[in-house]
Amino acid sequence: MFQNALLVAIEGVDGAGKNTLTSAVACSLETAGVRVSRIAFPRYGTLHADLVSAALHGQMGDLIESAYGMATLFALDRKGALHPGLGLAALTADACEESVNQPHIILMDRWVASNAAYSAARTQQSIDEPGGIVEWVADLEFSRFGLPVPDLTILLDVPVSLARERAAGREAFDASRTRDLYEQDSPLQERTAAAYRALATAQWQGPWLSVTADVNPHVVAETLLSSLSAQ
User: Strand pairing partners for 108?
Assistant: First the structure.
């Protein structure tokens, strides 16, 4: 989407291991001499992401009850990450004028597909519901907000039971990582996982690659290098 840059979204339910996979893939790419930029959403510590966090922890009244309201906050957080004229290519501290146009890979821990999957799961709609919330999310984020469509979306497709165990373990280890209302809702996580698989099958908004929990990050890195070379 951006000149000389490969935009890659890594998706999956809460606790799937997206951050771990993103870190390992980034390390492999950097070892191969590739410039890598990383960003995770929501961007906690910024306005809209902190409002999302407050809502997910029951601190924003009935806002959490609105799938459209929550989806809008998530979308505004992504919109706020764009740099005028440079887009996501300017996210890292080393993105100076000389380096912005160098070939590199941008890894995003969550992107628009997360809004589509969770919103479909919350409203219990199919991803291809005519005039449904998935269509609305795409219009809001890609059309109205002008967010870029990823060159590749990677779905980390793990059993929800494993993701739940990981989220619980993370909470037990770090008191600041208390599970939010979405993470505590097992049926929601199951529906979200199903929505993600449907999006991947449909190749929603561009190409998708589905991987399992035991995926070799070096193999993923090689796939991204091949995609970058093919641009």
Answer: 9, 39
